[in-house]
Amino acid sequence: MNRFPGGDPTEEALLYYEEIPSSHREAPALMLLHGRGADERDLLPVVDYIAKGWNAVSIRAPFEFPGGGFAWYDFLREGGPEPKSLRQSLNRLASTLADIHDSNPTTPFVLLGFSQGSLMALSVATLRPARLKGVVALSGYMPSDELLPAPIARLRGLPIFQTHARNDFVLPYAWAVATRDRLTRAGAQVTWLEHSAGHSIPLDAMDRVSTWLAETASR
Question: For residues 179-209, b (16+ Cβ closer than 10 Å) or e, as one string?
Fold first, then answer.
């Protein structure tokens, strides 16, 4: 079931994105994937706080969300992403990342997603896009293996920073813990941080992300 207006987008079409260049074109890039009901402007305020001096690219999800903003996929009634809309978004996100890479072939980048964007970041990372240095997964989780575009084992060795609130009533804490354990078993280099600020990004988490990004970029 797809409740989004506008019908099914062409799966090969590139997603809309905005580039926010730094003064150093060769600096790493932060690829921002917003949450449901937001847009490409939502995460821009965090860039200077956690990744000052980096380039940034903020990508808009493809589906208009009822009430405003955009979404990456629909939800099934029993929870979890609806497979068709998720596949469409993952295909378009992978094509968009490849297009960005073609324009900036030497620039390393980190995927940063919040909520639905976190699921997208972790999922598309299994394809190991060129120059990917790591993933920041904020208040999200990973879908089941059969919904991933490539085996989770391909994340072996990839640095991943994951944070989630114990009192997150939008996406359950247990889903995030299960994701952390799956990533660890797959061999990803997981840094885990839990907090009690609900479905949000608290300042102490942003401080930890900033340190992690600096360390990841230097590897």
Answer: bbebbeebebbbbeeebebebebeeebeebb
